[in-house]
Every structure is written in C-alpha cells, then in structure tokens.
Design a protein that fits this description.
The structure is a single chain. The protein has 15 helices and 18 strands. With 496 residues, the chain is of the alpha/beta class. The protein is elongated.
C-alpha cells in the first residue's frame, strides 16, 4: 500500500476517529469538522447504529454528502488516553474495512487534533495501515473481483508525516518479508530457496554469506547437520552482516529455520502437521529484522545468522539414541528427534560467538509447544543470563507491542538435561510428560553460551503464527512477530 502525507486530500473515502469522554460518545476534532461538512449526518448515523466509540468498533456511513462516498468512523476509546499506539490500531481497523470495498484511495482525518496531529503519529497511522493491508494471495488464482484488495493508496492529512515515514516503511518491509517467509509452503521455501531469498538483502547493503553442508561439516557442526540428514534438501547456514556502527562488536541475532518439521523418526501426529511449514519463524524474524535495520540505515553493527534445515524421516534420518558432537565439542544424546530446533540453534550460536565475537546474542525460535501452554498467543517467552539485556528486550517488546514474559533459569532445571552417556541429552525424558519443557530447552541452549556473553532466548512458538487474530494489524496466520521488537531494541539500545 502506498502512503502519502498531504494537507490536500481529495479522496471520496475518509477514515475518522470517534471516542468517548466519560463513557459518552465524543467525536475527535477532525471528525467534528467532517460531521459539520456532512450536516450532522455522521453523528446521526452513529446514534442510530448505537456506535459508542469504543476502541476497535467500526461504522461505515455511505454517501453522507455530495462529495463523499463513504466515511468510516473508527472507535478509539477514551479520547484523553489516545496516543500513537491507539491511532495505529485504529487506522488498521479502518483500512481493514475498506480493503476490498472497491475504494482505491482513502484519506485519514487527523489534522487539527491538538497534540495528536504530529509527524510521528501520522507515520504510525501509515504504519498501522500498511500492516493491516498485508495479504498473502500468491497461490489464490480464483479470487473473485470483490475478494481482491482494491485499496492501494492512503492519504494522511499531516504533511509533516513524511519526515518520519522512511523508518516506518523499512519496518513494514521487514515485517512483510517475515510474514511472506512464514506463509510460504515448504515445497517452495526449502533451505536452499530460503537462503537464495536472503541473498537479495545485498541490494540494501547487507553482506550475505551462505555456508553449505560441506563447510558446516568442516566446522564440526554435526548437531545441526544431524537434523537435516534425513532430507533430500541440503541444510544451509546464512550469515547477514549490517555494518552501520563503526568498529564496535556486533549484536548477534540467531534464528531457528526448520523449513518443515515432521518430527523426524519421532514423528509428529498428522493433525495440524501442515503448520510445521512455519517452524522457521525465528529465522523469518531475524531476516525481517535485518531487512528493517538495513532499510532505515541503522547506526549499529548487527549480524543475523539463521540455520536452515528440513527435519524428515527417511532411511538416513537421525535416530533416537544417536550421539552427536556439536561445534562446541560438547556431545548430545538424542532422545527425541522432534526436539530438533535446539540442535540447530546450538551450532549456530557457537559459530556466531567464535566467528563474530558479539557483545550480546539473542536467539528466536518456535521452540516449544510448552510455551503456548504457558502464555497462549499473547506473549513470547523470554529466557536470559542477563538482567540488563532482559530489561532492554522487555521494554522494546512493550513499546513495539510485541510483548515478552521472562522465565527462570536455574541449576535445578539445568541438571535435568544431564545424560549418563553424553555431555547432555536433548530432552529430559524420551517418552514425554516431563514438566518445564520451555525452561529446560532454554537451559540446553545456555550450555552453548560462552563466558562473558550476554544472551537471551525468545521462544515465539505462540506468537509467530496464530490460528485467529483480533489485532487488525495482523493476519490470521504468519504474524511477522519479532521484527518490530528487534528493530526497536536495536534503535533504543544498540545504535551509536
């Protein structure tokens, strides 16, 4: 969607904001002006429809005067509490209602609203609109005309918004990339195809290096390679470097990229297995974050590393009971081949530390179903060896509206990963049924963090994709979770 910032909007479709004052319907200043131009028809329509201005409520008023075809009234709740985040969501709701309406150009009435008609808020309106307009229709060949998006341009009536838009546009591009990657089917987005798409980031100034299986074997990355050995697709390690911060040590972002996860020999139940095309959501988030960071020319050094594999059950597949040697030299007893993400991450984390000497390292992964039991689809799980890094991530998640919730890491949980025949096992019990699944997975990863490295693990199994969604900015499946959080974290805590 194209976003324009101009004081002279002439579209025949307008989005206006209506809220409440002490529980009573109250039109915003721009909505009041619009209502006067419509001779009170908007207020009359709101009263007739019992539209109360509550946040998220939408009312379309058609042909309210001779010039306008439709005015979309969007509720924002208590007017005194409206801020940029509220406007972002409200704009998204308005765009959702117009997306397939036949309207091609719409405008947002924001000018004249004291303290709210700012450049930053105007840009956030455009940001919410673009997130709401996202569609993944690549393989839908028989859509009827009325099912296809018609809205292509949104005008925001605050011309100064253009000043703040470039950075928001970069994040939109990053989120869209992450969503596209998660939504792609696994027969299209296998490890080599994923790596090829990431190579396109070189156009933005990102240095991209791709390591194949021979190179990873020479490095001793047998934990990662063991996961992919049952697939006809070659595993890949993609390294994306953005050098915008001088000589400082980089922040390392590590993503789990299991392009499809059958569970391997420890085969998953068939019901819902199609969702495992999204088991590369962590890699998608890292890729999207690198797209956003490079797109806005962030003054920071960031290296994104994603391990891309396919976990399949053929005659060459890894078996329960196997012992593999990781790049770190530590040995791992495989009790369950469906606990594969940690086996990928541990080698990529070791490579990141050995090769790039990061000041801090954050990994993102759709790692455990247990995190969904704990947090549902509202929060991602946060685990860390650093209170300071955890605080920065938590704050960034809150401000970006991609929240996290921190879980404990202690020796009591760590010892549950001890093995009697290797340095560790990849799950605490082969038959399942053990508790603290998300915590023990994080404890496994912590064993691969070198002394002095600040590290955090974010389990996004409940947030990378959602079966249904009441956030107007997000689609009903691949959300692109993590891009906004990581971009905000870099902007607030790692830029010079």
């Amino acid at each position: 969607m194209k976003i324009e910032f101009t004081s002279f909007t002439e579209s025949k479709a307008v989005i206006a904001f209506v809220g409440q004052t002490d529980g009573t319907v109250a039109f915003s200043v721009p909505a009041q002006k619009l209502d006067r131009a419509c001779k009170g028809r908007l207020a009359k329509a709101a009263a007739a429809a019992k539209f109360n201005g509550a946040a998220g409520k939408v009312l379309s008023v058609h042909a309210p005067n001779d010039k306008l075809d439709v005015v979309v009234l969007v509720g924002v709740g208590e007017l005194a509490k409206v801020d940029g985040a509220v406007l972002e969501r409200a704009a998204a709701s308005g765009v959702k209602s117009l997306l397939t309406s036949g309207v091609e150009t719409a405008s947002v009435a924001l000018a004249g609203w004291k303290k709210l008609a700012t450049a930053v808020n105007a840009a956030r309106v455009g940001f919410g609109a673009c997130l709401a307009a996202y569609r993944f229709d690549t393989y839908r060949t028989q859509l009827k005309p009325e099912q296809k998006p018609s809205l292509t341009t949104l005008e925001v009536d605050v011309a100064e918004g253009a000043e703040a838009w470039a950075a928001h546009q970069a994040v939109v591009d990053g989120v869209s990339l992450a969503r596209d990657l998660v939504n792609e089917p696994a027969n299209i987005l296998h490890p080599e195809a994923f790596a090829k798409r990431l190579k396109e980031l070189t156009a933005l100034g990102v240095e991209v290096e791709i390591l194949g299986e021979a190179q990873m074997a020479a490095l001793g990355m047998h934990s990662l390679l063991g996961v992919g050995q049952g697939s006809v697709r070659e595993s890949q390690l993609v390294v994306m470097k953005w050098n915008g911060g001088g000589d400082e040590a980089p922040l390392a972002l590590v993503g789990k990229g299991v392009c499809f996860d059958t569970g391997g020999i420890s085969l998953k139940p068939s019901g819902g297995m199609e969702e495992m095309k999204g088991d590369m959501g962590g890699a998608a988030a890292v890729a999207g974050a690198m797209r956003a960071i490079a797109g806005r020319k962030a003054k920071a050094n960031v290296v994104g590393l994603v391990g891309l594999v396919e976990n399949m059950p053929d005659g060459q597949a890894q078996r329960p009971g196997d012992i593999v040697t990781s790049m770190s030299g530590q040995t791992i007893e495989i009790l369950n081949t469906d606990a594969e993400g940690r086996l990928v991450l541990c080698d990529v984390m070791t490579y990141a530390q050995e090769k790039h000497k990061p000041k801090a390292m954050i990994d993102l992964a759709t790692l455990t179903g247990a995190i969904i039991i704990s947090l549902g689809h509202e929060f991602a799980g946060l685990f860390s060896n650093s209170d300071a890094l955890s605080a920065k991530i938590t704050q960034a998640g809150t401000l970006a509206e991609e929240p996290v919730w921190r879980f404990p890491l202690t020796p009591a949980y760590n010892k549950l990963m001890d093995s009697s025949v290797a340095d560790m096992k990849n799950v605490q019990r082969s038959g399942g049924g053990a508790g603290a699944g998300s915590i023990t997975a994080a404890q496994f990863l912590q064993r691969f963090v070198q002394d002095g490295v600040e590290w955090a693990h974010i389990d996004i199994a409940g947030t990378a994709w959602k079966p249904g969604n009441d956030d107007p900015r997000e689609p009903s499946w691949g959300t692109g979770y993590g891009v906004r959080l990581l971009n905000r974290l870099v902007a607030d805590a790692f830029e010079s």
